[in-house]
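The following record pairs a protein chain with its ligand, magnesium ion.
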Amino acid sequence: MVATLDADGRVLAADVVSELHVPPQDNSSMDGYAVRCADVQESGVVLQVTQRIAAGSSGHRMQPLSAARIFTGAPIPSGADAVVMQEDCDVVNECEGGVRVNAVPAVGQWIRRAGEDVARGSVVLQCGQRLHPAALGLAASVGMAELAVKRRPRVALFSTGDELVMPGQKAPQDMPPGAIYNSNRFFLAALLRRLGCDVTDMGIVPDQRDATVEALRSAAQSHDVILTSGGVSVGEEDHIKPAVQSLGSLDLWQIAIKPGKPFAHGRIGNAHFLGLPGNPVSSYITFLVLVRPFLLQMQGVTEVAMKSIAVRADFTWARADKRREFLRVRRNAQGGLDLFPNQSSGVLTSTVWGDGMVDNPAGCTIAPGDRVQFVAFSELLA
Ligand code: AMP
Ligand code: MG
């Protein structure tokens, strides 16, 4: 159970069922006068104002030829069947409390009906739904101060690569030859947190078999998922795969997407192992395409598929690939897509310049004017 106020991004573990109507009773959606339509068949009728009902109070039964001064959100008194907005009324005989109604009301006008938002007994939010700000508001509107949510997945994150240096450890001018800053750790940690994970950041593991085995072994003991970047390719310095095989099983390695081919999945004890390629764009894209739905499904989220829409390409992609490709693109003001000029898997700039990607099937070229499937990053980062 978590406080509804703190439940943004969490996944519901039970349906939220409303025990009341929302709104609880018929109420006014205007400042004005509640009337009986039968009394106002023509404009200019003068009614006696016999009660005043503000939001938070309640009135009494309306007698014929009377009106109730009423404010937005105040309950409609019984007998009244319409509200006339104050702009359509004139106060007359101030001392005797009369109002002239200058517009003929229709039955039900400016009345918000009891239960028109939520009917008592209805499911307002479903088990497996990921909560977002509006959902918290809806839960609160039916009186929920706390919500039952799924446990956060515990994820151990580490990067591999002897070339990696943490920003802050060395100034740019002091970087030794061959060294690069660890960028993957930053976006992976942030992506995991956005998906509601409890992240243990295990830092950088050196490119050594023993150190890799040890890091995986200890991570597997207390985490649901181990997420690594780098070291899953075919080079001699790629120690992740044999290390996973020695501790558990490697169930999947290499997938026909570009970027991201070296992606790996396996099990170590009860923990899932997810190995991302080291190239930053490959790491980023495989996270969005493969890890994100995995982590959501682990939390019981029912809708995990990436949503794409058909958008016009305003660029040429002449080289068809054997693999399904994810091209970094940006929507332009003409409603089309521009392509980032450098699609290399090392060019992280493309993921910041772009606001999404084209999901291009294997073997397809793209010509200007073609409809392509566009996936917005904003959908995947929420
Ligand atoms: P690997 O998959 O380990 O062979 O790495 C592929 C490429 O990605 C190499 O150029 C690495 O230097 C680079 N790389 C690996 N890990 C990271 C990281 N955490 N941050 C930035 N670049 C990385
Ligand atoms: Mg490496």
